Amino acid sequence: MTSFTRPATITPYLAVADAPRAIDWYVRVFDGHRRGEPYLMPDGRIGHAEIGIGDAVLMLAEGGVGEVPVVAPDNPTTFTHSLNIQVEDVDATFARAVAEGAAVERHPEDQDYGRVAVLVDPFGHRWLVTGTPVRSSRTPVGESDYLTMVVRDADRAKGFYGAVLGWEFVPGSVEGAWQVANHSNIGLWANGDEPANQLCFRVADIEAALRAVTTHGGKAGEAKERPFGLLADCADPEGTVFYLYQT
User: Which residues form the VOC domain (predicted)?
Assistant: First the structure.
């Protein structure tokens, strides 16, 4: 095994049941690269391997190698540790992980400390995938922040936009909803209504904005808690439907 740079002070070292598959998985999902060739034990199992991910190194080996009393997780439901990984695009990384067989614990959402998703990889390790908040940091007040495409048939719509625009989808936060993986401000929702495009606008004070809607001839619904903040459905005086949200 060849190391090209001095490792960090603390480096995660994972035990996995299938090291060749795990190496491929971490390289594809986390945009990593192999650091040299794995060290093979006499019985053919991988005794040590390194993967570079950003400015960090992930080490791994197949559990139970030699005299080392470390074994790979066996379909855990509880965990002794979590691995935190900082990525440029939480939604894209999350979508790749799910497509590659990761179990979802928490879908991507903005928190005060950043955008975060939680998943368990196919080898039993729990990951916190974190990055810069999407909505709260990027979208100014008053600008359109989210587009919901209301459709009759979600599978048909996903197939169409996947073929035309190359979109990939992950389940949304409500029944019948799908998030466009690489566009965190676009989603599909099959809710039985007529097809339509519904815009969502960010406001600083949703209660004040809802009062303004009714004062000026529109219709305002009640602000309700959602994973990303407060959301209310509205309509302008001509009946055009839109949404307001406050982080």
Answer: 6-132, 143-247
